[in-house]
User: Which sequence fits this backbone?
């Protein structure tokens, strides 16, 4: 990929630039907890974005996306928003860097990625993190990695219409090979956990379904959680985020909030506890418990949070039938992948059954991606 990028860079601009990369992510458990001040447990994966970049001075950005085979040119003021969706991410990162007092001037870039788009593996966070990290290095702005993650998150909020939490950008920037990271999204304390589940494999099955309006549905879930938290806060002022609430406190406000908001909050409160239970189980190498928690998360995401879909539920049911240790929808939901923790000796049988049964039902096979926990944002050359 780096060679193809460089070939295009030479053809378009001539000469060489510096090369930066960042990664997509998986999340073992802790879904839709980040914007609720809870825990997440992600890691970076071995697919991501690579960009070659050279500073030019002035205030024009010239960018070429190899994957979309499309060129965009834009300025750096708020009025200069480019038209292509992919360019808005780069523009947003420039603007958010400037808003924080960082320096950004013109540059030229060619970039490409191998994170499957729409699979829930955060190709957009990989793109934001690549450019946030690169601009920080090239302009010597001195932001720490958390600030770079916030730059990516604010790009989603202000230029892409998704009120996401911090998880994806955090994983993309802090990821390290062979390690998952538990992040407390309220205090931003984090801890690396070596993740080498002997005798098990982690695989993703991509439904190749991406539902329209996923971002507005995502924002509605977030609003529901905020409504529930606000109601609980009336009685328990210490509740800054929904993740601070006890289950009992949610029951107290049941009659005061929409049934829908109640169900969303019920899921979140359960999920925050599941992350801690999974960490305990990992410390004992008890992957069967980890897997059971994953199924519980799926149940919650499907029935209470309602971000699953027929295809995802089908894959999780198939996993259960094949005695897979754990399976669940991963990421924001509304399509995308299931994450599966599978005993090595069951892997082949499970994949064959999933491919065959899914194809028969939906007319196409799910894609299979093995998970390799890898490094996040870095400079390659
Ligand atoms: C998306 C968002 C994240 C997080 C997940 C759900 O990936 O970008 O911030 O909320 O959904 O866990």
Assistant:
């Amino acid at each position: 990929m780096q060679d193809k990028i460089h070939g295009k860079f030479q053809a378009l601009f001539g000469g060489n630039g510096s090369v930066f990369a960042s990664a997509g992510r998986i999340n073992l458990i802790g879904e839709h907890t980040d914007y609720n001040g809870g825990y997440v447990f992600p890691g970076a994966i071995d697919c991501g974005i690579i960009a070659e970049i050279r500073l030019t001075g002035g205030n024009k950005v010239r960018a070429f996306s190899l994957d979309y085979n499309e060129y965009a040119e834009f300025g750096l003021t708020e009025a200069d928003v480019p038209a292509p969706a992919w360019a808005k991410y780069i523009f947003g990162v420039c603007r958010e860097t400037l808003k924080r007092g960082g320096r950004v001037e013109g540059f030229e870039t060619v970039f490409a990625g191998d994170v499957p788009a729409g699979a829930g593996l955060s190709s957009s966070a990989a793109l934001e993190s690549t450019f946030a990290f690169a601009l920080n290095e090239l302009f010597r702005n001195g932001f720490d990695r958390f600030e770079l993650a916030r730059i990516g998150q604010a790009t989603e909020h202000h230029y892409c219409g998704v009120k996401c939490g911090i998880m994806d950008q955090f994983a993309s920037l802090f990821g390290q090979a062979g390690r998952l990271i538990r992040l407390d999204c309220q205090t931003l304390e984090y801890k690396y956990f070596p993740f080498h589940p002997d005798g098990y494999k982690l695989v993703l099955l991509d439904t190749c379904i991406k539902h329209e309006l996923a971002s507005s549905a995502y924002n509605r879930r977030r609003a529901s959680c905020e409504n529930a938290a606000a109601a609980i806060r009336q009685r328990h002022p210490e509740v800054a985020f929904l993740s601070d609430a006890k289950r009992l406190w949610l029951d107290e406000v049941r009659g005061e909030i929409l049934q829908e908001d109640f169900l969303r909050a019920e899921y979140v409160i359960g999920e925050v506890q599941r992350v801690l239970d999974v960490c305990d189980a990992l410390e004992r190498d008890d992957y069967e418990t980890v897997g059971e928690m994953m199924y519980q998360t799926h149940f919650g995401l499907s029935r209470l949070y309602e971000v699953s879909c027929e295809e995802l539920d089908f894959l999780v049911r198939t996993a259960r039938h094949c005695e897979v240790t754990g399976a669940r929808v991963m990421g924001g939901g509304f399509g995308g992948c299931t994450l599966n923790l599978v005993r090595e000796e069951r892997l082949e049988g499970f994949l064959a059954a999933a491919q065959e049964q899914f194809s028969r039902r939906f007319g196409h096979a799910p894609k299979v991606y093995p998970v390799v926990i890898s490094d996040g944002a870095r400079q390659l050359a």
Q: What stands out?
A: The radius of gyration is 21 Å.
